[in-house]
Amino acid sequence: MEALIPVINKLQDVFNTVGSDVIQLPQIVVVGTQSSGKSSVLESLVGRDLLPRGTGVVTRRPLILQLVHVSSDDRRKTSGDENDLNSWKNPMHFSKGVEADEWGKFLHTKNKIYTDFDEIRQEIENETERISGNNKGISSEPIHLKIFSPNVVNLTLVDLPGMTKVPVGDQPKDIEIQIRELILRYISNPNSIILAVTAANTDMATSEALKIARESDPDGRRTLAVITKLDLMDAGTDAMDVLLGRVIPVKLGIIGVVNRSQLDINNKKIVADSIRDEYGFLQKKYPSLATRNGTKYLARTLNRLLMHHIRDCLPELKTRINVLAAQYQTLLNSYGEPVEDKSATLLQLITKFATEYCNTIEGTAKYIETSELCGGARICYIFHETFGRTLESVDPLGGLTTIDVLTAIRNATGPRPALFVPEVSFELLVKRQVKRLEEPSLRCVELVHEEMQRIIQHCSNYSTQELLRFPKLHDAIVEVVTSLLRKRLPVTNEMVHNLVAIELAYINTKHPDFADACGLINNNIEEQRRNRISRDLPPPAASRDKPPKASGPLASASLEPSSAETDGKAAPGSSTGDGLPDAGTGNWRGMMKAKGEEASVEEKNKAPPAFPASPLRGHAVNLLDVPVPVARKLSAREQRDCEVIERLIKSYFLIVRKNIQDSVPKAVMHFLVNHVKDTLQSELVGQLYKSLLLEDLLTESEDMAQRRNEAADMLKALQRASQIIAEIRETHLW
Ligand code: GDP
Ligand code: MG
C-alpha cells in the first residue's frame, strides 16, 4: 500500500532537479493556534526529535519537511539522486564518522548531511533567526528539510507558524492577518491535506484551526482534525464527545494524540517511549477508541488519505505533464538540432532564405500574413495605389499661372509681335509640366526598395526561423541582400529618370490621342471665334477661312486655316504636305490669330504685364473676356491664346502621364524586383558559401545552445515523470 508514496516522492525529486514547481504534489500542512502542539504532532509522525518546540512563538518560518523512507540495507541507493549518493559517500559529511540510520539534509546547506538531530533542530533555529530575526519575527520564506529514515513513511509535511492575535516582540501590528495569509497560501493548494490541530484543553467549538481549514476546504474533503494534549484535560472531563465527532463532525475523522509535554522535552524523553506511553494512556482512558486514535493511527490515516488524494490527482497530473512535455518538445524542435554537416546546412539555409524571399514577393510564401499586406502585394499597392494615385493627383497645369503661359508665349516670339501662338512656348511649357512627373516616379522606386528591404526582415522573422539560431549568418544574409538592393537602386533610378527624359526628348504632337484632342480644341476655338466675330466685329479676313473639319488629326485641322491665312499674312515658311507643324517658324499654325486683335496685343505688350489692364476697348467686350484672377485683365486674344496652350498642355500631359504610370512600374519590376529575385540566390551563395566563413557564420548564439540544453533537460524530467505515473497506474494499487 505504501508503494505509491515513494513514487510520488520520486516525482517530486524529478521536479526538484529541474527546479520546477509547475506540478503540485500532495503535502500535509498543519494549522492551528500557537502552542496547540502542531510541531509536536509532526515530530511524533517523524518519530524523531528534530523540530524546535516550546511555549510561545517557536515556529516562525514555514518548514517543508520531506520524509523519505529508507530501509536499512538499501539506504545508500534510496537516499535519492546522484548528489545524495555522492554526498553520502563523502566522509566529510559524516558527523562522528559513523554511518547513521537516519539523516537529514537542508536545501539551504546543499549536500551537508546531518545525522545529529539536535544539530538539525539547531540549524532550523539558526536558519529561522537568519531570516526572521531573533525577536519573534515571522517570515513566509520556507525552510526545506529532507529526513531519510527507515522509521518514517513517505510524507511531505509543512509546519507553519501558529495563529496568533496579539503582536509580540518584532511582530508587526497585522501579524494576525499576515499569518492567516501565510497559512491560506499553503492550505489553499488543492493538493494539500490539512491537519487542523486543536488542543483538547480548549473548546473545540471555537477551534481556529477548523475555521481556517473550512475556508479553503468548505467540503472538508481534505481536512483531518487532530486533538492534542488529551493528557492535559481538566479532571472530570474527557474528549469522548469531541473524538466521536459529536461536537463538530469532521468528514475525514478526528484523531486524538498525546505528545510529549514540556517536561518530557526537557527530560529528553525519546519519541519511542512517548508513543508507548501514549498507547498506554489511550488504553486506559479511551479503551473503546484506542485503536482509532494515537500517533500511529494518525500516520496510517494520513498515508491512506495521501494515497487517495494522489489517486484523484493522477489523471490531471498526467495530463499536465503531457501537455508540458509536448510544449517543451515543440520548443526544442524549434531550436533545431546541433549542426553536423555545416556546409550542407549553410547551403540549405541560404537556399531556403532565397526561396522564401522570392516566394514572399510572388505571394506563394508558406506563411501568409493575414493582418496586413506584405511582400509582393505591397509592391502592387505601391504601384497602383500610392504611385498611381499620386500621379493622378498631379495637376496637368499645376504651378502654371496664366501669366506664366502668357509670358512664355511672348518670350517665344522674340522682338516681333506674334502672329500665331508660338509652338515653342507649348513645348517649353509642356516639358516643364512633364518634368514634374519625375519626382513621384523616383519616389516610387524608393518605396519599392524599402519594401524589398522589409521583406528581408519578414522572411527571417516568419519563414526562416532557423536562421535566428545563427545570428551571424542572419546578419550576413541581410547584409548581402541589402547591398544587392542598394546596388540596384541607382540603376533603377537611372532608368526611371530616363523614362521621363525620353518623354522630354521629343514632344510627339502626332501622337494619335493628342491629335484627337487637338482637333477638338481647334474645332471648339474656331467655333467660339466665329460666334464672337459674327456678333461683334465686321468679318475679318480670317472669317473667310473654311471651317475646320469637325474632328481630325491636328495636322489637318490646323493646316487648313493656316493655308488660308498664308494668302494675306506673312506666311509660315514651308508647309509640308503631311501637315507637320513648321519647325522653322516655331509657330503653331493652327492657332491663328484674328487680324482685328493684333493691335490690342501690341498695346498690351507696351504695358507692364503686372499692371491691371487699361480700360478695355469695345472689341474686347465679348463672352470670352471674363476676368481672370491674375494681376491684370487679359485681352480676349490673350485669353484665348492661353486657353489654347493650356488645353494642349493638359491633353499632352495626360498622354505622357499615362505612359509614365505604365512604364515606371515595369521598369522597377525589371531593374529592381525581378533582377534581385533572379540573382539573389547566386549572390548569396557567391558571397557566403565559402569554407573560410563556414565556422564563423554557423556559430550559434550562446543562449540558443543553453536554451536547447535546458529545454532538453526539462523534457527528460517530464518524460521520466510521465513514465513514473504510467507505472503507478499500471500497479493497480486500489
Ligand atoms: P506549536 O506552537 O503548535 O507548534 O506547539 P508545540 O509543538 O511547540 O507545543 C507547544 C507546547 O505544548 C510544548 O511545550 C509541547 O511540549 C506541549 N505539548 C504539545 N502537545 C502536547 C500534549 O499532547 N501533551 C502535553 N502534555 N503537552 C503537549
Ligand atoms: Mg510549532
From TrEMBL:
Segments forming domain GED: 642-733
Compositional bias segments (type: Basic and acidic residues): 594-606
Comp. bias regions, Low complexity: 551-565
EC number from the UniProt entry: 3.6.5.5
Start and end residues of each stretch annotated as Disordered: 529-613
MF term (GO), any: microtubule binding
Pfam families according to UniProt: Dynamin_M (PF01031), Dynamin_N (PF00350), GED (PF02212)
GO cellular component: clathrin-coated pit; cytoplasm; cytosol; Golgi apparatus; membrane; microtubule; mitochondrial outer membrane; mitochondrion
Catalytic activity reported: GTP + H2O = GDP + phosphate + H(+)
Key words, A-Z: Biological rhythms, Coated pit, Cytoplasm, Cytoplasmic vesicle, Golgi apparatus, GTP-binding, Hydrolase, Lipid-binding, Membrane, Mitochondrion, Mitochondrion outer membrane, Nucleotide-binding, Peroxisome, Synapse
Main location: cytoplasm
Membrane topology term: Peripheral membrane protein
SUPFAM superfamilies linked: P-loop containing nucleoside triphosphate hydrolases (SSF52540)
UniProt subcellular location: Cytoplasm, Cytosol; Cytoplasmic vesicle, Secretory vesicle, Synaptic vesicle membrane; Endomembrane system; Golgi apparatus
Domain Dynamin-type G: 22-315
Signal sequence, renumbered to the chain: none
Gene Ontology biological process terms, A to Z: endocytosis; intracellular distribution of mitochondria; mitochondrial fission; mitochondrial fragmentation involved in apoptotic process; peroxisome fission; rhythmic process
Family: Belongs to the TRAFAC class dynamin-like GTPase superfamily. Dynamin/Fzo/YdjA family.
Protein name in UniProt: Dynamin-1-like protein
Originating organism: Xenopus laevis
Gene behind the chain: dnm1l.L
